[in-house]
Batch of 2 targets.
Target 1
Amino acid sequence: MPFASVKDMRREARRRLPRAVFDFFAGGADDEVTLRDNARAFQRWALLPRILRPCPSRHLGVSLWKNDAPLAMPIVAAPTAFHRLAHPEGELGTARALAQADALFIVSMASTVALEDIAAAAHGAAKSGHARLWFQLYVQPDRAFTARLIRRAEAAGFEALVITVDSPVFGRRDRDWRNGFFDLPAGLSCETLREPQGDGQLGPPRPIAFSAAFSWSIVDEVRKMTSLPIVLKGILHPADALLALEHEVSAIYISNHGGRQLDGAPATLDVLPAIARVVAGRLPILVDGGVRRGTDVLKALALGANAVGVGRSLLWGLATEGPDGVARVLAMLRDELDRALAMCGCSSLDEVSPALVGPRREPLK
Ligand SMILES: Cc1cc2nc3c(=O)[nH]c(=O)nc-3n(C[C@H](O)[C@H](O)[C@H](O)COP(=O)(O)O)c2cc1C
Ligand SMILES: CC(C)CC(=O)C(=O)O
């Protein structure tokens, strides 16, 4: 059956993946209220198209920072763990597909392929020879280990660090409890978390530690470890966006971890306008959660995002067709965004503004 949409890819991924793996990818915390609300929030907004505005071709490129090479499109791969659960090529396949599309890959620290191998695959596949890669980090209580990870990411050509700050403890996911899914199956592990031992051989992967003891000082600490731009992922409150500004981060990443951490947290699209208001263009804003269509991307851009992260949608592509599936999902979303821009009379993302959206009275069923 041909795939018309991300929804079709999800259906096929569900058919192919073992139940526990599908549930790990698809699931959220507790009652999954936030998980569902992320996607529903897009239906609470309507697009308000403008007519007869010439836009024979649309420019989807976006620059997040001054003097930074633009991204080919405002759709980026949110960091997601364990790609080899979805497909044997794992993050290598994802990296190649994203690099070929000139799309940014935010690589999870919990990757099932080592970050150096991911970077090599991405740079080898990029048409320019230089892929766009950021590294997602859970700061570890062992700061020396954290610093070594950052140095490896720098050496491999990653261009920014994304510190995930929504996980002082790990969210409790009912589906994983029911399925008894608490660890990677034999043969797979978090390869980035291995380090050379005294004998030069790689040691076992270090477990990821979460810490509820962290404060804003970790941002300042990490800054001393690197000259890479720092992006804070997991911001939901305008007051925290202002604190992020004070701590001189380079971008704000609005996320509730795809509904996998605090159930009952708001849908990301619902907090975006208030955060965009206080940030007032001083920093780029990324947002993720529930993006399944190019029109979702357009709504997020209209409400103040500069780029939009996509998590599960790409995993469904990877599970269904490997790297080709990742490429297919990206192409679908890109094409849908391009069409939506044309139908709204916009020839570039600069023309996308809050005037393009209005509230819808009833969420669609
Ligand atoms: C299977 C899975 C694994 C994830 N792993 C990570 C991770 O390692 N680090 C992180 O910061 N976020 C992680 N996330 C959260 C994503 O970065 C992102 O916030 C979320 O997937 C966005 O929602 P969406 O899946 O609806 O697009 C994960 C999400 C999923 C679904
Ligand atoms: C391995 C986990 C740390 C990955 C994660 O962030 C998640 O499952 O949401």
Target 2
Amino acid sequence: MMCPVLKQHVKLACVQFSSTADKIFNVSEARAGVIEAANAGARIVVLPECFNAPYDMALFPQYAEILTPSPPSKDQSSTYHALSTLAKDTNVYLIGGSIPEFEPLTGKYYNTTLAFGPDGAGLGSHRKTHLFDIDIENKMTFRESDVLSPGDKLTIVELPDYGTVGLGICYDVRFPEPAMIAARLGVFALIYPSAFNSTTGALHWEVLARSRALDNQVYVALCSQALPPTGYPAWGHSIITDPNGQVMVMANREKAIVYAELDSEAIGQHRRQIPTSNQRRFDLYPDISQLCTKGLGLD
Ligand SMILES: O=C(O)CCC(=O)C(=O)O
């Protein structure tokens, strides 16, 4: 098992805001938030799930973009390029929330996050692997799979100044296995652009963030959309937890930026104090990080 390494202290920010029907406005909101976070000293900045479009499956195809590093044609808006430029302008590692993706070869749609380095280069992408299909009577029904296809790989991205992070999107946080695999392979943080809702957010948001952190003794960041005046009732409460499962910071439901200093010593310290990572009984159950290497983080 690889020991997670955070090479140096780093300030991480979650930029929480709500998306509207106006893509240009949404991208400008993201830009303003990332600039503010960078000016406050953040070097890893995270945006919410579906930040450039309404979180509404019926509208996904209308907002979806082909994700390509090649320059956009004049009538093709490109969130890819806006994010790449933003990372470069602000000198941050940018985990670009998620955006609706159209894959022209297959005609499929995905919910996809993009990661960029401070030079603007794409570092990796993650297509949501577990689609949000739930039905809680009279409270919350959602079926991403009506429109979206699931991604078929787990994603670990290297941020050269700091180490590696595991990426997931929102509902992915409910699944401990990918988080565990990423942690065993040495990530210092699990990062999930998200948009829970009033029903499941109240039930499970904080406990999921804390569980993934404590299970794996790594940092966890969930960056949510804020609660909009109408439409999808995003839970907000962007949260960063430490490797001991404690909440370092949590927003309310309004627009906000939350910050936490990730300490390069903290993971090792918590692992020495409560050494579950060395006490696993692989004679009784398998080490899933050894079983699953398919597509892992390698675009
Ligand atoms: O897991 C949940 O309760 C919410 C998930 C969600 O909102 C999403 O995946 O977009």
